[in-house]
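Module 6 notes. Inverse folding takes a fixed backbone as the condition and produces residue identities as the prediction. Think of it as a translation problem where the source language is geometry and the target language is the twenty amino acids. Below is one complete input and output pair. Work through it position by position during the lab.
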């Protein structure tokens, strides 16, 4: 047995896994003398969403990421106490139970808990079990937990029915503005110039051809969000209106979740509500994040904000603390 494996055997090891549609990330870690969680190894693999990849491929991707993380830590054969697996596409309890059973059968941890990938957003508590989390990236979705530990999920309907406040919606409005200006032969505003430069097009016909040839239209359109937000920050008026609309949509999502989770305890209505933010819009733009925070303040929504920079580490911490199981209770 190697020195690292011998050291690992003297303390409990935990697994934190964050699985999405295109990537699965795993950390192996342990608690230090002060209780702080330390990452000992990292591993990654392909997507593990069972709805899109299938249950067999999802299990294989998770096992591969775990094995790589344990090898990176230098103790491939050492047992782990518990693993928390936050996997996209597992809102259905049937998927969670089957995935947990398959992972337990593989003996990668003494206990394997599978939860929806939104759950780590609720991991930061400030004296109360009530919490809210918002993801704003390509899409948008929110999750809340009430004082009784029940979960509510709002949004996440995708580009056809929802995704308000998302990168896709920001990009869509900017692209629509550009396409309309080019089609009508109207005066080209500065945002249209920015969008055309980003896409390397000059005419409406070229925009049509670009969309028709791209297999991931949603991703392409969402990729415009960054330059639109930068334009808004520099004072471009059309970009500013688009970003303001997105901010209002996300603030409305927070307010609707707040009403859902606080309806059982009116005394908490004026206490700062723990709010965790994740996704590229919040993580990559200080301007967007600060503008969102100001909008919440203007609306009288009192929150204590945390940015979730690393969902995989959040899963590792939750595993070590023994929080969350696959048996989530949803608000009706």
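Target side of the pair, the amino acids:
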């Amino acid at each position: 047995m190697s020195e690292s494996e011998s050291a690992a055997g003297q303390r409990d090891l935990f697994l934190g896994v964050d699985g999405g549609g295109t990537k699965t990330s795993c950390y192996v870690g342990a608690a230090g003398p002060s209780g702080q969680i330390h990452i000992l190894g990292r591993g990654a693999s392909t997507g593990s969403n069972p709805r899109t990849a299938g249950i067999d491929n999802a299990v294989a991707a998770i096992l591969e990421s775990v094995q790589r993380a344990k090898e990176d830590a230098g103790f491939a054969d050492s047992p782990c106490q518990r693993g928390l697996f936050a996997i996209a596409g597992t809102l259905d309890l049937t998927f969670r139970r089957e995935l947990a059973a398959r992972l337990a059968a593989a003996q990668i941890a003494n206990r394997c808990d599978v939860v929806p990938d939104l759950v780590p957003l609720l991991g930061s508590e400030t004296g109360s079990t009530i919490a809210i989390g918002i993801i704003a990236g390509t899409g948008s979705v929110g999750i809340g937990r009430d004082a009784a530990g029940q979960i509510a999920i709002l949004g996440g309907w995708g580009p056809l029915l929802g995704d308000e406040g998302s990168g896709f919606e920001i990009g869509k409005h900017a692209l629509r503005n550009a396409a309309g200006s080019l089609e009508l032969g109207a005066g080209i505003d500065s945002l249209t110039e920015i969008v055309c430069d980003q896409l390397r097009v000059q005419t409406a016909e070229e925009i049509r051809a670009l969309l028709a040839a791209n297999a991931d239209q949603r991703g392409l359109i969402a990729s415009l969000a960054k330059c639109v937000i930068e334009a808004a920050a520099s004072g471009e008026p059309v970009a500013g209106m688009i970003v303001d609309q997105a901010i209002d949509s996300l603030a409305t999502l927070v307010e609707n979740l707040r009403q859902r989770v606080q309806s059982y305890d009116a005394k908490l209505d004026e206490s700062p509500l723990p709010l965790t933010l994740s996704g590229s819009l919040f993580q990559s733009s200080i301007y967007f994040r600060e503008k969102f925070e100001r909008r919440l303040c203007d609306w009288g929504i009192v929150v204590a904000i945390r940015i979730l920079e690393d969902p995989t580490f959040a899963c590792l911490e939750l595993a070590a603390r023994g929080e969350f199981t696959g048996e989530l209770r949803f608000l009706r």
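Reference fact for the lab report: Residues 138 and 219 are 7 Å apart (CA to CA).
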